[in-house]
């Protein structure tokens, strides 16, 4: 099959021979990477998956059974907007760029590569999870997320190949060479080197880390570099399902936990094979704080440069703001100075990472209210919370300082003594891992999580979302 047939696209791939050749060389390497680092043990099975086939909001996806290596990873840009202008920064109102402006080449490449690197990284982090899925519905969700992250990699590699010449091709190869968690060739951002080895972490990842992706993609969808804006806008369409997986996954765990608590009020949820609320809280603390790091430093000259040069805007820049220059304005940040926290004002452009982080936190809080409603409705007095943004940070001005979840500055000794109360301990991880036994019977679900309210694409929960190929699957 010709590449133009095997890659659904709306970028007229067939007409650009050079690009086509570059992608034809990259495709077998991508597939080799997928087979080596994609979901382990399920490559022969037929999964009921959604595939993007156009950008038509009414019917952009097609659902059918697919073996993952045969998934059709496509390249889609949303339609070009006639007369689109750069929406912010020093070059506001100039025509949006259809080619890479020479002076922005290095910065833009770095932005695209950083985004691109997260896509294969998450597939690598999640590659063992299929073996312990709590239901067929969840197994399918995992693989849906995985193949779409693969498509996001294609979307970014398309930009690298088309607009960055040899450098772009080299970067595209390097994206297949780095490995999540490998000390010699790690993925670029730390959260993408963390282990995601059980399903509570998977749901936290899709809730918190994919949501960082949502905000990064949204900021890039404002970009003056038009092909990047159009590619990331379409990626957001798929991303919303990933977030849904995380939000509802944790909600379903909470639902099951409160059911167990009510069933036998004398017993802890753990004694009944569930995940108790304080354990869920620890996972939230870990993934929320780790994902906050992904926004970068609170005060950042890189962020100022991205904004000034029109490459990366604020969240919903054109809709939410009237002044798109962001000059002569300031932003207040809490800075640790010695043993104190002092408020300092910084130029707004230098605070762009923090502004995006604010949007992210507000979005997370919306979900948190829904989770707490599940607990409250069950008549249980307990509230899940997000730690303060200063808690457990490895990047930015709070790194190398120690804070309680309430945001109180403490000594390193106190942190060491108390961190086990706030973050997962080896014993907690061991316990959660011990619950992870696969449940692949149609309509059945593991004990620690409630079934979803609905199935996928109008199908019921007990639909056969995965058809196992005998030889490949030792679990059924
Ligand atoms: Fe993605
Ligand atoms: Fe995602």
Notes on the protein architecture:
The protein is mainly α. It has a single domain, classed as Orthogonal Bundle (Ribonucleotide Reductase, subunit A), CATH 1.10.620.20. 47% of the residues lie in helices and 8% in strands. The chain contains 13 helices and 7 strands. It has helices at 3-6, 17-37, 105-125, 136-163, 165-177, 199-220, 226-263, 277-293, 301-308, 317-320, 352-377, 412-422, 426-435; strands at residues 46-52, 61-67, 330-337, 340-347, 402-403, 409-410, 466-467. The strands form 3 sheets. Strands 2-1-7 form a 3-stranded antiparallel sheet. The protein has a two-stranded antiparallel ribbon with strand order 3-4. α4 packs antiparallel against α5, α6 runs antiparallel to α7 (226-263) and α6 (199-220) packs parallel to α8. The two termini are 34 Å apart. Bound molecules: fe (ii) ion (2 copies).
Task: Supply database-style keywords.
476 residues; mainly alpha; Ribonucleotide Reductase, subunit A; 3-stranded antiparallel beta sheet; two-stranded antiparallel sheet; 7 strands; 8% strand; globular; binds fe (ii) ion
Summarize this structure briefly.
It is built from 13 helices and seven strands. The chain is mainly alpha-helical and 476 residues long. The chain binds fe (ii) ion (2 copies).
Question: Roughly how much helix do the residues carry, as a percent range?
Answer: 40-55%
Name of the top-level CATH class: Mainly Alpha
Secondary-structure element pattern, one letter each? HHEEHHHHHHHHEEHEEHHE
Total beta strands: 7
Shape: globular
In DSSP terms, counting alpha (H) and pi (I) runs of 4 or more, how many helices?
Answer: 13
Query: Which regions contain 5 or more consecutive residues with pLDDT less than 50?
Result: none
Can you list the ligands bound to this structure?
fe (ii) ion
Instruction: Tell me what the CATH architecture is.
Output: Orthogonal Bundle
Percent in strands: 5-15%
What's the story with the biggest beta sheet?
3 strands, antiparallel
């Amino acid at each position: 099959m010709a590449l133009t047939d095997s890659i659904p696209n709306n970028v007229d791939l067939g007409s650009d021979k050079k690009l086509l050749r570059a992608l034809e060389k990259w495709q077998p390497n991508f597939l080799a990477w997928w087979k080596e680092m994609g979901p382990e043990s399920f490559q022969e099975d037929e999964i009921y998956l959604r595939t993007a086939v156009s950008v038509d909001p009414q019917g952009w996806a097609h659902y059918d059974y697919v073996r993952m290596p045969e998934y059709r990873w496509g390249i889609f840009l949303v339609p070009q907007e006639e007369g689109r202008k750069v929406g912010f920064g020093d070059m506001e109102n100039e025509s949006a760029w259809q080619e890479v402006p020479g002076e922005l080449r290095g910065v833009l490449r770095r932005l695209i590569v950083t985004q691109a690197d997260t896509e294969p990284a998450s597939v690598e982090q999640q590659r063992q999870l299929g073996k312990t899925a709590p239901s067929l519905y969840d197994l399918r969700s995992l693989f849906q997320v995985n193949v779409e992250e693969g498509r996001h990699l294609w979307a970014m590699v398309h930009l690298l190949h088309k607009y960055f010449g040899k450098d772009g091709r080299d970067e595209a190869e390097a994206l297949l060479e780095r490995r999540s968690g490998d000390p010699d060739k790690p993925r670029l951002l730390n959260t993408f080197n963390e282990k995601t080895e059980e399903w509570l972490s998977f749901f936290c990842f899709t809730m918190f880390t994919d949501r960082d992706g949502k905000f990064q993609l949204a900021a890039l969808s404002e970009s003056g570099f038009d092909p990047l804006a159009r590619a990331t806008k379409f990626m957001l369409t798929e991303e919303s399902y990933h977030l849904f997986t995380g939000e509802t996954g944790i909600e379903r765990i909470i639902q099951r936990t409160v059911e167990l608590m009510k069933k036998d009020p004398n017993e802890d949820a753990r004694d009944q094979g569930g995940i108790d609320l304080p354990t869920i809280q620890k996972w939230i603390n870990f993934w929320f704080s780790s994902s906050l790091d992904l926004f970068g430093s609170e005060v950042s000259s890189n962020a100022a440069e991205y904004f000034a040069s029109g490459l990366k805007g604020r969240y919903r820049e054109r809709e939410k703001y009237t002044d798109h220059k962001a000059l002569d304005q300031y932003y207040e940040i809490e800075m640790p100075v010695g043993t104190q926290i002092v408020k300092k004002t910084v130029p707004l452009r230098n605070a762009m990472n923090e502004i995006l982080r604010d949007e992210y936190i507000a979005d997370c809080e919306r979900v948190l209210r829904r989770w707490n409603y599940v607990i409250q409705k069950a008549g249980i007095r307990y509230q899940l919370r997000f730690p303060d943004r200063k808690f457990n940070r490895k990047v930015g001005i709070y790194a190398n300082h120690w804070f309680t979840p309430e945001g109180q500055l403490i000594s390193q000794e106190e942190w060491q003594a108390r961190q086990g109360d706030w973050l997962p301990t080896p014993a907690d991880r061991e316990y959660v891992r011990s619950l992870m036994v696969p449940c692949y019977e149609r309509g059945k679900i593991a004990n620690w999580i409630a079934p979803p309210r609905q199935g996928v694409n109008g199908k019921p929960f007990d639909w056969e979302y995965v058809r196992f190929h005998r030889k490949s699957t030792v679990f059924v």
